Amino acid sequence: MTAPSVFDQLVGQSHITEILQGAVKAAQSGQESPNLSKHGMTHAWIFTGPPGSGRSSAAIAFAAALVCPTGGCGTCQACHSAQTSGHPDVEIIRTEGLSIKIDEVRELLTRTSWAPSMGGWRVVVMEDADRMTESAANALLKAIEEPGARTVWLLCAPTLHDILPTIRSRCRHLQLRTPSTHDVTEVLEKRDGITPEMADFAARVSQGHIGRARYIATNENVRSNRAQVMKLPLQLSSIAAAYTAAQTLVDLATQEANAATDARDEAETQALAEAYGKGATGRGMATGGSKAIKELEKEQKSRATRAVRDGLDGALLDIATFYRDVMLVQSGATDSIINIDIIDEISAYAHKNPAHATVKKINAIMEARTNLIHNAAPLLTIEALMCRLA
Questions:
Q1: CB 128: neighbour CB atoms within 10 A?
Q2: 206, 52 in Cβ contact below 8 A?
Q3: CA 24 to CA 338: how far, in whole Å?
Q4: What pLDDT, on a 0 to 100 scale, did the predictor assign at position 282?
Q5: 62 falls within a domain
Q6: What's the CA gap between 41 and 158, in Å, rounded?
Q7: How big, in percent rounded to 5, are the helix, strand and coil portions of the chain?
Q8: Mean pLDDT of all residues in 43-50
Q9: pTM for the predicted model, two decimal places
């Protein structure tokens, strides 16, 4: 029986695990590799891969292994604290807003200039490095060009091209794969106790996105919303219907985002107000309290905006699977249908519409996703898309 490891959680990424374990061994023996060869340790890494492939999980597992006395056993206090943002030498940067700004990076650089307090390395994991503004990326570049002796940077992004060229040229690149449906199904069954039927459904419709698969499998409301979204392509019988479908899609994304953020926003605001003395003496908050509350509300608004955009992006990917399945039926290759629960509707649609129109509709969805990434107005973007699909 093999010993447990922090890398056990990485699904379908054996090619990455081998490289990272080799780097950990090299780090322990002091064999740093400045020329970015396959083996050895270096101070900056970029993890890329499609959403749900586990790029952040891989980076955090690597960080835990670097600060673990035994190279990533997965069971010691150092491993647990590193993976839960509790280790003093491991900093995990997660942004819930639309971007990472230069002030945040400068503050981060100040902290990373300190020497490690417990282990041999100070590790920074930046989960959304692609969301850095240009000025923030340039500030980070200087730190990577002149690295601290014991500081390791682990940057995560969807693709290598999402990172500033001058940064990526100084980092070792690791490309993660999309896990297979079988691999995701197995994880849901063994780790989360999901029934085989539900695990198979969630793995298929999530297209290898492990986190989303678990979210779908454990949340009936999410499955209900997805079923409603999947009916939209069948309702686009006119331009009026297209506008109705667009509003429905935006409303569903907004409701889901609000459900995830409202209670949290209220708790954060209350906690901050109490920290500034509200209600403690019968008087108002201490000096600076109102300003702090306004700053928090600004962050919460940015977080809510991103949550809506992320929800819309997920819904558009679901709709794209409908047209993908239509295209498979039209080409006679039905072995890998994703939405087998609505196969009758998909088959009927496929026989009524030409294949070249299906390709154009998939392209239109991908264009709309790109426009949302570039901060286009959500409702207008979705209305334009639905009109094209109709």
A1: 20
A2: yes
A3: 39
A4: 55
A5: yes
A6: 23
A7: 65, 5, 30
A8: 92
A9: 0.75
Q: What is the C-alpha R_g of the chain?
A: 23
**225 occurs within a structural domain:** no
- Domain extent at residue 343: 234-264+292-389
Q: What is the DSSP letter of 132?
A: B
The answer to the question of residue 324 being in a domain is yes
Claim to verify: residue 11 and residue 153 sit in the same structural domain: yes
Residues 207 and 254 in one domain: no
Residue 35 reports pLDDT greater than 50:
no
> From CA 335, how far away is CA 370, in angstroms rounded?
30
Instruction: Examine residue 384 and state whether it is found in any structural domain, yes or no.
Output: yes
Total Cβ atoms within 10 A of residue 374: 7
Nearest to 42 by CA among 62, 57, 60: 62
Q: What angle do CA 319, 322, 328 make, to 5 degrees?
A: 145
Look at the alpha carbons of 377, 383, 385, 388 in this order and tell me if their dihedral is positive or negative: negative
> What are the helix and strand counts (H, E) for the chain?
15, 5
Strand order in the sheet with 172-175: 90-93, 122-126, 151-157, 44-48, 172-175
**Alpha-carbon span 54 to 141, nearest angstrom:** 25
Q: What is the pLDDT of residues 111-143, one digit of tens each?
A: 887 778 876 789 999 998 998 988 999 999 988
Residue with tokens 């399945």: 325
Residues 254, 210 share a domain: no
Tokens, residue 221: 């409301």
How many domains would you assign to the chain?
A: 3
pLDDT at 287: 75
Torsion of CA 257, 260, 264, 269, to 10 degrees: 10
